[in-house]
TrEMBL record:
InterPro entries: Kinase-like_dom_sf
Protein name from the UniProt record: Protein kinase domain-containing protein
Organism of this sequence: Antrodiella citrinella
Amino acid sequence: MSISHPPSASNPNQYVDGVYDSLGALLDEFGTDTPDTCEDGVMSLQDKVLDATHMSEGYIVSIKAVPTSNEINIAQLLSSEELRSRPDNHCIPVLDVLDVLPDLLDDSNTLLVMPYLRPFDDPPFEIVEEIMDFIHQTLEGLCFIHEQEVAHR
């Protein structure tokens, strides 16, 4: 899976098959600006979550930096084909784990690629039935992860 923003015409050799060849090339291309100063930056309400474009498919994804720990194994388990097919699994699927591309800000993190999601209330709820459905799905998902012997915070 190749994920990134396209290279500029001024530095086409720094970008090969969707991956920058070095941290220096990445910083040369994008600088050290914060997301709010970048042309296509999206400010996330969550720390350590960025948006990106799936290069071969063209859709937006989220890249989340998580501590290199059991959280990655748990997320992959809940995203396995067997568990993904269950209607009570409302967990956000992991599309890819970028363990070969380190988090540039913290090398104790691994990067998870997941679908880009809107806030739970976008669009806003309009009728009580929509709120009840949201609560039902949330509790059903909670029961599902407990069935898998996964605790949460």
